[in-house]
Amino acid sequence: MEGFCVYILYSRSIDRFYIGYTGNMDSRLEQHNKHVFKGSFTDKAEDWELYHSIPNLSEKTAKLIEKHIKKNKSRTYLRNLKEYPELSKNLILKYL
């Protein structure tokens, strides 16, 4: 079992998603909501919530999956990742 995850956050107040990866999801979510990353995209809102995550990844795999998801830039794709678990499984297999 690995220690990283790819995460998708959602803010209702700005109706936007954010994609990232981390080794500590609880801490990272708190950091985003407390504006620890000054000037970052997540600095625009204080109501970020975890929308979806892909856990138990190596750091290398997490980085590759994060890049893949960001490249798609599609709300439909993000919703499908959450709704269809096999999509996340396929990403893991692709980037192992």
Sequence of strands across the biggest β-sheet? 2-1-3
**Which structural class matches the secondary elements?**
alpha+beta
N- to C-terminal separation? 13 Å
Report the mean per-residue pLDDT as an integer.
Answer: 95
As a percent range, the share of strand residues is: 25-35%
Count of DSSP H/I helices: 4
- Number of E-state strands: 3
Instruction: Identify the overall geometry.
Output: globular
Radius of gyration, taken over Cα atoms and rounded to an integer in Å: 13 Å
Query: What's the main sheet like?
Result: 3 strands, antiparallel
Spans where pLDDT lies below 50 across 5 or more residues: none
The helix fraction, in percent, is: 40-55%
The succession of helices and strands, N to C, reads EEHEHHH
